[in-house]
Write a structure and sequence with these properties.
Layout: E1 21-27, H1 30-45, E2 52-57, E3 61-64, E4 80-82, E5 89-92, E6 96-102, H2 118-134, E7 140-141, E8 158-160, E9 163-173, E10 176-184, H3 208-212, H4 218-233
Parallel strand pairs: 1-2, 3-4
Antiparallel strand pairs: 2-6, 3-5, 6-10, 7-8, 8-9, 9-10
Helix pairs in contact: 2-4
Length: 234
């Protein structure tokens, strides 16, 4: 049997039955990906396209969210983009799987996602990631295991113990979401060097490969993510 390509991500059930399109852009420059997101936002907002779930990876780049501070860059010499998403500085690289949900929040409320409610959207994003990581037997949560109720570690993102495996930063235009999630998949000891990711130390970040002790099949990971997004965004 022919093995599926990355563009043919396997799923339990046909893609045509999903409430969103699925696109895999592969390795793409950050600026190009942002421009394509904006095009999709306008297409979804105008009704020319249904919601879209994008998967991709980027060459090494740092993005600075609206809450970034001067000390977030600590020796980084590479490409930098100032962007409209929430949050602080974060790194993107080929070791990650980046997920950009382009989803209309103007649609009627769904089981988990409430109409025009950004906080509800963020909770659904987190829940979809936690559900996916639980499929690997990981005890994932939306805050560090060492965080107190008012601790700075109790922030948007996904953690396993006291290590952060996924960063989340979103923006909304015309009640359509863009930007999204950076999930650390492959272990790269040089990732995050030169920045304070989301205001934390570089040592806070961890990869799915490191947690599992083995390489991760990205096609399988994408299939699990699609299943989880279908669960929370249908």
């Amino acid at each position: 049997m022919r093995e599926p390509t990355r563009e043919e991500t396997p799923l339990r059930g046909p893609l045509s039955q999903l409430p969103f399109h699925v696109e895999d852009w592969g390795l793409v420059g950050y600026g190009e990906a942002l421009a394509k997101q904006v095009e999709l936002v306008e297409a979804v907002r105008s009704g020319q396209s249904k919601d879209t779930l994008v998967f991709c990876s980027h060459p090494p780049v740092v993005t600075l969210g609206r809450s970034s501070q001067e000390q977030d860059l600590d020796g980084w010499q590479g490409e930098v983009h100032e962007v409209s998403r929430g949050g602080r500085a974060t790194y993107h690289g080929p070791n990650q799987l980046v997920i950009y949900p382009i989803i209309s929040l103007s649609a009627d409320s769904r089981e988990f996602l409430h109409q025009k409610d950004v906080h509800s959207y963020l909770r659904c994003l987190e829940s979809a990631l936690v559900r996916t990581l639980q499929s690997y037997g990981l005890k994932a949560s939306v805050s560090s295991s060492t965080a107190a109720e008012d601790d700075s570690l109790k922030m948007t993102g996904v953690w396993v113990g006291d290590r952060k495996v996924a960063s989340i930063g979103v923006a909304v235009r015309g009640w359509v979401t863009y930007h999204g999630v950076a999930l650390n998949v492959d272990h790269d000891p040089d990732a995050f060097k030169g920045i304070s990711p989301c205001g934390f130390s570089q040592a806070t970040m961890i990869s799915l490969e490191y947690l599992l002790g083995q390489k991760v099949d990205r096609s399988e990971l994408q299939s699990l993510l699609i299943d989880s997004f279908n669960h929370y965004f249908s």
